[in-house]
Specification:
heterodimer, A: alpha/beta, five-stranded mixed sheet, 8 helices, 38% helix, B: alpha/beta, 4 helices, 7 strands, elongated
Chain lengths: 222, 194
């Protein structure tokens, strides 16, 4: 019996289209995303329907994490304005008689995220930038008896004189209301009433008044 | 995987003696490592980058008026007070709280939108009866938001967001009173919220 010979086919596949797809996705990710900014604490922000995007601007960023620790950061829009941070720490130093040295103030200028009460600020600022992130900071006190954030904001107001500046509030989902209120109190004590809460975008619920307003072409932001 | 083309070794036409045959090399390259590299980079970018830029939500707080004369009075018919408590608890009452707390109701973050919509509709209806101008029919509507100590920041932002969603133009973030806090505590105990 003559047997039918089945030709042996190669199992090798052409990988070229696969490579194409992989690099297409890769280029998409490279273009569509931005690197995560280094953060001292991980904060998961709540969601809101606000359509306003976060911009780079002169701002005071106040963060509070899930345990209610408050951190203060100063952001300048232009890199040339970095010396404003110097002015800020100078002001704080003067107001609170902290006795910071030049190099400690320089450290603040280079890296301004701070989450310690004034009593520990000198020790904290003595550390170089990379070590400061490793230190567990207790957070800036914001309770009604001792709201040190008020001093920080007052100093920021002095440092940012003549600039348009914003107050960014970035809170964690699980932060309790009192820490948020403490932050608001500190801002109110400085006669500052307009803030921007940093949130993740979310879709407007179908059929709501805002949905109707936005789909009718009007800007739905309050 | 890597294909080495061995076919066509001897099948070429005859060349003279002593002429060395040039070995025909395959031009096919194994793409697998390249795919590996590609996906490695993709995963790297997925993990280190943020996809969407965060949005910012504007919040404008009123000045604290110490003098009762300067404080804004609100109409009882247009007031809705929403209280936020522990474990995503949410409670509300319309107008003023009755001494026995009988108009104190509990709700959920899903249902609160309907409560606000219903209240807004009622206030607009009332405004129409009072003959308010067409675009300020809802001017009596004031939502008072009172988070207590156990409420989270997420709860607060959610309810502030709800104000934007339902286009409530007047709302206030106010401290909770002891009486209201006690009512919340009592309700929580009844519902077994720890």
């Amino acid at each position: 019996m003559p047997s039918v010979k089945i030709p042996k086919k190669s199992t090798a596949t052409d990988m070229t289209p696969f490579v194409d797809v992989a690099f297409l996705i890769l280029s998409f990710f490279m273009l569509a995303t931005k690197f995560k900014p280094p953060a001292a604490v991980t904060i998961t922000t709540p969601k809101s329907v606000s359509a306003e995007k976060l911009k780079e601007q002169d701002a005071v960023l106040i963060e509070f994490d899930s345990t209610g620790k408050v951190y203060f950061t100063m952001n300048t829009k232009k890199a040339a304005d970095i010396d404003l941070k110097r002015d800020l720490i100078n002001e704080v130093n003067k107001n609170r008689n902290l006795g910071l040295t030049e190099s400690e103030m320089q450290n603040f200028r280079n890296y301004s995220a701070v989450g310690s009460p004034f009593s520990q600020l000198k020790t904290l600022l003595a550390l170089p930038k990379d070590q400061r992130d490793k230190v567990k900071q207790p957070g800036i006190p914001v309770d009604s008896t001792n709201n040190e954030l008020t001093t920080w904001i007052a100093a920021a107001k002095v440092a940012f004189q003549g600039h348009q500046m914003f107050y960014m509030l970035k809170g964690d989902n699980n932060a309790k209301y009192p820490s948020f209120k403490g932050v608001l109190d500190a801002l109110k004590a400085n006669e500052e009433f307009k803030y921007k809460l940093i949130t993740d975008p979310k879709a407007v619920p179908y059929g709501s008044d805002l949905y109707v307003k936005r789909s009718s072409g009007k800007e739905g932001n309050e | 995987m890597a294909d080495i083309d061995v076919s066509g070794g001897d099948s070429g036409h005859k060349k003279g003696p002593g002429v060395k045959k040039a070995k025909k090399l395959s031009t096919r390259v194994d793409m697998t490592p390249m795919v590996d590299l590609g996906f490695l980079l993709i995963t790297f970018f997925i993990f280190t980058t943020t996809m969407s830029t965060p949005s910012t939500m504007k919040l404008i707080m009123p000045k604290d008026e110490k003098d009762p004369k300067d404080q804004t009075e609100i109409k009882e018919s247009g007031a809705l007070t929403i209280m936020l408590g522990k474990d995503n608890g949410i409670y509300f009452y319309e107008g003023q709280i009755k001494p026995d707390g009988s108009n104190f109701q509990s709700s959920t973050y899903k249902d609160i939108r309907d409560v606000i919509i219903k209240k807004k509709a009622a206030v607009i209806e009332n405004g129409r009866r009072l003959g308010y101008p067409k675009d300020t029919l809802d001017k009596d509507l004031v939502v008072v938001i009172k988070p207590n100590k156990e409420a989270t920041y997420k709860n607060t932002v959610d309810i502030l967001d709800e104000m934007t969603i339902n286009q409530v133009h007047r709302f206030a973030l106010v401290d909770i009173t002891d009486d209201e806090n006690m009512l919340i505590k009592a309700t929580e105990q009844r519902n077994g919220v720890k």
